[in-house]
Design a protein that fits this description.
globular; N-utilizing Substance Protein B Homolog, Chain A
Length: 167
């Protein structure tokens, strides 16, 4: 499991507990710390989970409005806790996190939904996030895809010298 995937899993578990316990923002840092202690005690995510949770909570009303707008068949309160909080992470990463490529945000959300959600969670998450991505302004989609391209080029440049050194 990659470090970011594990961090997103911890973020989802934290948001799940936060949501289940009545959205008490003053308990969030303790929930994050508890989840690290229980699921990844030696893991150092460089602050990724705390930063992600903090930003999701700052934008929670906007994010929930996206869920209401794009999951029209389901009132927010009727979406399962897992799916609702996976969507929150996916929407945050898709719309507010400038350094995460859109495809990564969508794919990671789908994988977490498949692991922790119900039988159709992955399809549901894919449908909602895909519709949000499709409706993003073309300039923003292009800017975000450029991030994907730069990350791919950086990854390839790191792999290439290692392969040449081995030859």
């Amino acid at each position: 499991m990659s470090n970011r995937h594990l961090a997103r899993t911890i973020a989802m578990q934290t948001l799940f507990a936060w949501d289940f316990n009545g959205k008490k923002n003053d308990d969030v840092d303790a929930l994050v710390d508890e989840n690290f202690a229980n699921f990844a005690p030696q893991f150092d995510d460089g602050g990724f989970v705390h930063e992600t949770i903090k930003n999701i909570l700052e934008h929670s009303e906007e994010i929930d409005n996206y869920i209401r707008r794009y999951a029209t068949e389901w009132p927010l309160e009727q979406i399962t806790l897992v799916d609702r909080n996976v969507l929150r992470i996916g929407i945050y990463e898709l719309l507010y996190s400038a350094n995460i490529p859109p495809r990564v945000a969508i794919n990671e959300a789908i994988e977490i939904a498949k692991t922790f959600g119900g039988e159709s969670s992955g399809k549901f998450i894919n449908g909602v996030l895909g519709a949000i991505y499709k409706d993003m302004p073309a300039a923003e989609r292009a800017r975000r895809e450029a991030i994907t391209q730069k990350l791919q080029e950086a990854k390839e440049s790191r792999v290439k010298p290692a392969a040449e050194a081995a030859a």
